[in-house]
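Input C-alpha cells:
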C-alpha cells in the first residue's frame, strides 16, 4: 500500500500529496503535513485518488470526530462504510474556517486567474453544530434514515446527526418509515416557533398512506405534484425579524442566523440608491428581495420554481415597486429590455455560466453581487466577469455549512468605468 505525505487541502473535502511518480493524489479525511498509508481507488494519467487506511504521523490539529458515523481509519484495513454528510469533523472549527478561506482564494487564483483576490476573513457560524433548519435523508431498503457514503450509492443508516437544529434532532427517533413502501427521501425543515414540516419524496404517483402521531405538517411530493397529508404546505422562517413563507419544495438558506448575516452584509456593502433598478436573479422566496425592495426604485425578481414564486408573491406583497418573472434566468435577462443599476445573483451550485453572464452584460449593471455556494464554478465565472470588464472589489466567505467542505461566499463586482468615476 502506498505511503505519502499530504501537502494541502483541496476543494471537495480532500487533502492531496504526491505519489512517487509525481502524480497528485487526493485523499479524504487527511490533514496537511500528515504521513498516511492509502489504498489507490482511482488512477488517471495526471492524478489519483486514495482511501485513507492509516495515519502514520498525525498533524497536531487532528481531533476525535464527534459523530459515531464519521469516518475513522481502520489501521491498515478497509474502513466500514461511513456517513458522507460531513468532511471536516477531524478539524477544530477555527482550522476549518482557515482551510475554506484558503481554498476559496486558491480557486479564484487557479481557475479565475485572479492574481491577488481580495478575500476577507471568513464569517463563522454562531454554532458549528446543530445549525441546519433543513436536512434531507435517503432511506435504506429497510426504511431506515441515512446518508450516502462518500463517492458511493450505499446508504449508511444513522442513529444520530449533529447538524440539524435540536427540534429536528429530537424528532428523529420518533420517525418510522419501515412500513412505507416506495418512499425515497425524507426532508425535515424547522420554522419559527418550533414548527416542523416533513416532506416525503417518491417517484410513485400514488400518494402514501401513513399515520401522523405528533403535531407536524407533512407534504407528499411525487410525480403528480404536492399533496398535504397533515397540517400546512409551508412554514414560516424569520430572518432579522421578518417572516418568510417557505413551501415544502422551495429553497431557503439552511443556516438561519447566517442568512441574517448575509443579508446585513449585502445591505452594508452594496452601493444601493433609492432610484436604482435592481435585478434579483434566482430570487427564490425573496430573502434578499424583501430587504432590497424598500431601498430601491424598482426591483425585478426572476425564479423558475413555481412554489418559490408563490412564496415570493406572498412575502413581498406589501411592495408596489416589485415585479416577478417565473422563467429561466438565462432566457429572461436579455428579454427584460431594461438597464439595471445593480444585479444580485444567487445561482445553484452550477453557477452562472456563459449564457447567464451574457444576459447580465446586456443589462449593464454598475455592480454585481454574486452569492456563490461553489468556489469552483465561481472561479470559472470570475474569469468571464473579468473578460466582461468587471473587477472583484471584495469577497467574503460565510460558513453556512460547518463540518463540511461547502463554501458560501458573497462577492462584489464593479465595472471598470465605475472604478474610474470613483465608485466603490
Amino acid at each position: 500500500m502506498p505511503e505519502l505525505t499530504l501537502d494541502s487541502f483541496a476543494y471537495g473535502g480532500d487533502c492531496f500529496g504526491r505519489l512517487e511518480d509525481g502524480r497528485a493524489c487526493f485523499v479524504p479525511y487527511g490533514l496537511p503535513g500528515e504521513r498516511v498509508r492509502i489504498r489507490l481507488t482511482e488512477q488517471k494519467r495526471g492524478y489519483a485518488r486514495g482511501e485513507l487506511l492509516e495515519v502514520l504521523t498525525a498533524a497536531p490539529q487532528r481531533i476525535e470526530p464527534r459523530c459515531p458515523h464519521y469516518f475513522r481509519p481502520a489501521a491498515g484495513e478497509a474502513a466500514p462504510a461511513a456517513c458522507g454528510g460531513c468532511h471536516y469533523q477531524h478539524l477544530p472549527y477555527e482550522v476549518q474556517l482557515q482551510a475554506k478561506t484558503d481554498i476559496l482564494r486558491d480557486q479564484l487564483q487557479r481557475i479565475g486567474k485572479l492574481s491577488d483576490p481580495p478575500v476577507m476573513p471568513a464569517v463563522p457560524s454562531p454554532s458549528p453544530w446543530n445549525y441546519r433548519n433543513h436536512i434531507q435523508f435517503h432511506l435504506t431498503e429497510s426504511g431506515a434514515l441515512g446518508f450516502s457514503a462518500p463517492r458511493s450509492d450505499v446508504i449508511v443508516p444513522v442513529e444520530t446527526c449533529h447538524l440539524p437544529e435540536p427540534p429536528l434532532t429530537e424528532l428523529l427517533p420518533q420517525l418510522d418509515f419501515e412500513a412505507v413502501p416506495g418512499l425515497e427521501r425524507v426532508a425535515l425543515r424547522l420554522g419559527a416557533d418550533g414548527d416542523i414540516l416533513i416532506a416525503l419524496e417518491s417517484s410513485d404517483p400514488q400518494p402514501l398512506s401513513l399515520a401522523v402521531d405528533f403535531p407536524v405538517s407533512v407534504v407528499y411530493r411525487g410525480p403528480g405534484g404536492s399533496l398535504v397529508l397533515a397540517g400546512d404546505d409551508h412554514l414560516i422562517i424569520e430572518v432579522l425579524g421578518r417572516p418568510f413563507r417557505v413551501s415544502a419544495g422551495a429553497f431557503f438558506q439552511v443556516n438561519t442566523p447566517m442568512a441574517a448575516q448575509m443579508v446585513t452584509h449585502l445591505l452594508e456593502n452594496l452601493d444601493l440608491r433609492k432610484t436604482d433598478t435592481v435585478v434579483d436573479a434566482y430570487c427564490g422566496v425573496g430573502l434578499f428581495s424583501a430587504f432590497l425592495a424598500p431601498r430601491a426604485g424598482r426591483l425585478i425578481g426572476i425564479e423558475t420554481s413555481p412554489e418559490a414564486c408563490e412564496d415570493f408573491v406572498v412575502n413581498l406583497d406589501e411592495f408596489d415597486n416589485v415585479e416577478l418573472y417565473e422563467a429561466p434566468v438565462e432566457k429572461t435577462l436579455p428579454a427584460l429590455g431594461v438597464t439595471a443599476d445593480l444585479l444580485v445573483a444567487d445561482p445553484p451550485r452550477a453557477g452562472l455560466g456563459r449564457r447567464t453572464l451574457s444576459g447580465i452584460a446586456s443589462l449593464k449593471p454598475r455592480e454585481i453581487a454574486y452569492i456563490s455556494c461553489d468556489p469552483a464554478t465561481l472561479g470559472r465565472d470570475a474569469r468571464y466577469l473579468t473578460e466582461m470588464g468587471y473587477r472583484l472589489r471584495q469577497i467574503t466567505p460565510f460558513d453556512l455549512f460547518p463540518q463540511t467542505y461547502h463554501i458560501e461566499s458573497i462577492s462584489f463586482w464593479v465595472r471598470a468605468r465605475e472604478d474610474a468615476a470613483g465608485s466603490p
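The radius of gyration is 23 Å. DSSP finds nine helices and 21 strands in the chain.
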